[in-house]
Design a protein that fits this description.
Layout: H1 2-21, H2 34-41, H3 45-57, E1 61-64, E2 68-71, H4 94-115, H5 118-133, H6 138-155, H7 159-167, H8 169-183, H9 186-200, H10 204-232
Helix pairs in contact: 1-3, 2-3, 4-6, 4-9, 4-10, 5-6, 5-9, 6-8, 9-10
């Protein structure tokens, strides 16, 4: 019984999704009522409600009390929300997280150098200043380190890059705290300064190079630490 209900809910979800993709239902438009969808698709009203609630949770649809359900203005970043249930990332698995960062952060820094405004530069400078002043305070250093990377993502002006950072923010923040605890601040300070200067100078290739080196070096250090831990055991 439960399996059947879940399958019909998926059918409704796909039917609504198709109407939006085909622009039969466009942004701002009120969709068909639950009763009518139930009749049209030959499914229970409960299945229709479940599909709609899922789309509301993903910000595809919005419910307005007393008015009905409406299609939201969709941007590419919103599709990333659909990945959240599949992200079974272990917060303790630093290797997986840092390898993902190697793949995207160099290009993010390059795009930031190309597109960012003066406000982003100021925010990055403030983050670096806090890092410098808190080299003996792991918690504060890690928070500023984390925010530095968030500001770079914002500086790209790319909705997908910003969204990915938003989704993974807690995981990355946890990672940076762990890394600073293991590795100390000295290498991070020097590398972040180079990244900051490259972005300030609008040097796209240097920003990409310094960020890629920074995250790749971090990955290598983590692997080395884990290998040493295994040997000690």
């Amino acid at each position: 019984m439960e399996k059947k209900k879940r399958n019909t809910s998926e059918i409704v979800y796909q039917a609504i999704e198709e109407k939006i993709i085909n622009q039969e239902w466009v942004a701002g438009m009120k969709i068909t009522s639950e009763n009518q969808l139930s009749t049209e698709l030959g499914v229970s009203r409960m299945s229709v409600r479940e599909a709609i609630e899922k789309m509301v949770a993903l910000s595809i649809l919005t419910k307005r009390q007393g008015e009905g359900t409406f299609v939201n203005e969709l941007s590419p970043s919103m599709y990333i929300n659909g990945l959240i249930p599949m992200m079974m990332l272990n917060k303790d698995n630093l290797i997986d997280v840092v390898e993902f960062r190697v793949l995207i952060e160099g290009n993010s820094a390059a795009l930031c150098a190309e597109r960012c405004d003066d406000e982003t530069i100021i925010a990055l400078e403030n983050c670096y200043k806090i890092m410098f002043e808190n080299s003996d305070n792991s918690e504060e250093f890690a928070n500023a380190d984390h925010q530095f990377h968030i500001e770079i993502a914002k500086g790209t002006k790319n909705s997908l890059v910003i969204k990915v950072n938003s989704i993974l923010t807690d995981i990355w923040k946890h990672q940076q705290k762990e890394l600073n605890r293991y590795l100390g601040p000295s290498k991070g300070l020097e590398e972040h300064k180079k990244i900051l200067e490259a972005i300030k100078n609008r040097d796209v290739e240097l920003a990409r190079l310094f960020m890629t080196r920074h995250v790749s070096r971090t990955r290598e250090d983590i692997i080395k630490i884990k290998e040493e831990d295994i040997e000690r055991k």
